[in-house]
Amino acid sequence: DPLAEYASLCWSADELPFPKPDRLQSLVPRDELLEALHRVFVDVGCTLSGVDVNHCVEHRHAAGLLMFVAGLGPRKARALLKAVSTRLARIESRQQLVTEQLMGRVVFVNAAAFLFIKWRTNDGYDERSYADVLDESRVHPESYEWARAIAKDAIDYQEEDEPSNPSRCVEAMLDTPDRERELGRLQLEPFAEELAKREREREGGGRPYSPLLTLEDIRREFVEGLFKDRRAAHQRIRPVELYELLTGETADTLMVNMPLTCVVQRVQPDRVLGRVENGMTAYINAHNLSGQYQLDPDHFSCEDYVQPRQTIQGAVISINHEHMTLDLTTRSEDLAKRMRRHPDSAYDFEAEAAEEQRARVRRARSTVKMQERNITHPNYRHVSWRGAVKILEEEPAGEVVVRPSMKGPDFLSVTWKVDTDSYHHIDVREQDKINPWALGASLFIGDTRFNDLDEIIATHVEPMARLCDDLRRCPKYLQGSKHEIDAVLKEDVRANPQRIPYYLSFVGPEQPTKVLLSYFYKRPRHEYIAILPDGFQFRQQVFASVERLANWFKRHYKEAPPEPVRPAAADVPPAAPQAPPAHQLYYHQPAPQQQQQQ
Question: Is the pTM of this model over 0.70?
Answer without folding.
Answer: no
